[in-house]
Amino acid sequence: MQPLPQSGPHFRLRAALWFTTAKLRVAGPAPSEIGDGWEIRTAAPKWVCVWRSYPEAQRQLRVIVMPRPRRGRFDPIWQALLHQSLYDFGLRREEPNAWLLAQAESEFFARLAPPWTNLMAGPYK
């Protein structure tokens, strides 16, 4: 008996996505802006870092894993990270603003380790 050909992503990959992320709860961009069949899911900063390391897995699942927006979907920092992700996956042609993206990355990593960030930034604020 021949094994059935695997259709779509492996079950373990889909399970990992389901356990580590959640649906975007705030109103997000229209599906036409994202791409046909693509979905945005949110996760805690540590899981976003893990998923960022596996862009091929995200492509296979047709999902973009983003940090949870703090101030809604119109937060410029969240929008900069989303724009970069869309550009990386080839869903947008225009490059993101480098300065805004650098700020967004800085805030994202500050959320990842707030106690260490406060210690490092201490007297130099």
Characterise this structure.
The chain has 125 residues and is mostly helical. It is built from seven helices and three strands; from the N terminus they run H-E-H-E-H-H-E-H-H-H. Helix 5 packs across helix 6 and helix 6 packs across helix 7. It is globular, with a radius of gyration of 17 Å. The mean pLDDT is 81.
Cα-atom radius of gyration: 17 Å
Query: Tally the helices: what do you get?
Result: 7
Number of strands: 3
- Overall mean pLDDT stands at 81
Described by the principal axes of the CA atoms, the overall outline is globular
In short:
The chain has 125 residues and is mainly alpha-helical.
Key words describing this protein structure:
mainly alpha; globular; single chain
Topology, element by element:
Layout: H1 11-20, E1 22-23, H2 31-34, E2 39-43, H3 45-52, H4 55-61, E3 63-67, H5 76-88, H6 98-112, H7 114-121
Parallel strand pairs: 2-3
Antiparallel strand pairs: 1-2
